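Lab notebook, page 48
Experiment: co-folding of the full assembly
Goal: obtain a model of how the components sit together before planning crosslinking
Operator: M.T.
Materials (sequences as entered):
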Amino acid sequence: MLESYVFNSVGTRHDMDSLALKYLGHKNISFEDIAGKGKKQLTFNQIELEQAAPYAAEDADITLRLHQHLWPKVAADDKLKSVFCDIELPLVEVLSDIERTGVVIDSQMLAQHSQRLGERLQELEKEAYEMAGEEFNLGSPKQLQAILFEKLELPVIKKTPKGAPSTAEEVLQELAHDYPLPKLIIEHRGLSKLKSTYTDKLPLMVNEKTKRVHTSYHQAVTATGRLSSTDPNLQNIPIRSEEGRRIREAFIASPGYKIVAADYSQIELRIMAHLSQDKGLLNAFAEGLDVHSATASEVFSVPLADVTSDMRRKAKAVNFGLIYGMSAFGLARQLDIPRHEAQHYMDKYFERFPGVLEYMERTRESAAEKGYVETLFGRRLHLPEINARNGARRKAAERAAINAPMQGTAADIIKKAMIAVHQWVKEQPKDSVKILMQVHDELVFEIKEQNVAAYTEQICALMAAAAELDVPLIAEADSGDNWQQAH
DNA sequence: CATGTCACG
DNA sequence: ACGTACGTGACATGA
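Observation: model returned without errors.
Model output:
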């Protein structure tokens, strides 16, 4: 699975059946073939040996044959080989340990939130029914469309891919300027998301034996090299809204321990500075400047001290845009400003940071020529549509080409950090520190109270040492107390 | 199962 | 002329 993922993350899914078909032209015996399907499906222990043996033996056989096919492809390139041997393979044990450890949640606190959210949702529903003049299901986009755009005849701002009038939040936000109902819907949507996905569900996922929640990390899913997390997804626990932050507070430490979260500061922008070698950007990080303020100072041609909060906000959007393969259109929509103004900011930026522009152009060219881009460590992301005739598809591939080296290098770096930190954890007294979670640029730990200060410092140092960049790489412990510290 | 929506980095 | 920020996973609805 990992050999296939490192060889080409996007060419196929990486489960055995898909790989056997793609690389060996072999159709595996499916589990349904021997167990049946639906309600009458047997479990493996109920299957006759005559049927079970060939099925099981095929797995072993195909695994070996896939390895014989894929390993030479990976080993043919020193950098791919290193991504596999030095990152993905040693990471397996780290992820396994994290999954087995799990994390404690305060189910009682979440139950209280659920109840409060439920009460507020009922209030909102009642008000919404009055405004609409009838009862309807606020959770149904279809029924909401009918109320907003047919019954109340509000203007259609945007359509869904299928052509129906969209009720997405940005549309409701726009309508909320002139009508009362959309505002209620926005609040209802937000709260019902929190209730259904988190406060109701997380307590149901507590393991009876361990009394903790155990996620699964997937190592061969994303195009860029990031991990993903499922059942439950612990990489999208709310934080942006006040209500959301309360959910994060329900993630607590065992008695005698503290939760400590350490995250990389501006890791993708630092990688952009390193990869582009832009003098101005390298200098901003070397000087330890607030990078968004420094960007604002250049884009708006004012001294650093005269940067306003609005300038900084816009510069921050520009910086995010750069990481995403920005278009003037996208930046304009994000900032809700005219397109020519967005274009002006971009022009200014590239005038002041010409190395970044050159890097972006080089990346597009190289991607078009090779059909893939690579991270600092040589992980590849293939872009089959980079030379598509269809302009929209080609542009989308170009944006992915810009983004992948930064997102992917960050993923490589934190994976290296996880391996180093895990090694260090094993050298500490048993159970004095445990890795609990990874959230893309953040590692969350459970640390014995008496070790918190010393261990936190060690962890941040190990994370910072995970890669040598031409700018400082900084990891810091979360001062915002986002993952609550109980007991 | 597709769709629309929205939670995160 | 077109359609646009990158990467994910989970939920409710409704066919």
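Interpretation: Residues 141-142, 160-162, 164, 166-169, 189-190, 193-194, 197-198, 226, 233, 235-240, 244, 268, 407, 410, 439-442 of chain A lie near DNA strand B (CB under 10 Å from a C1').
Next step: discuss with group before ordering constructs.
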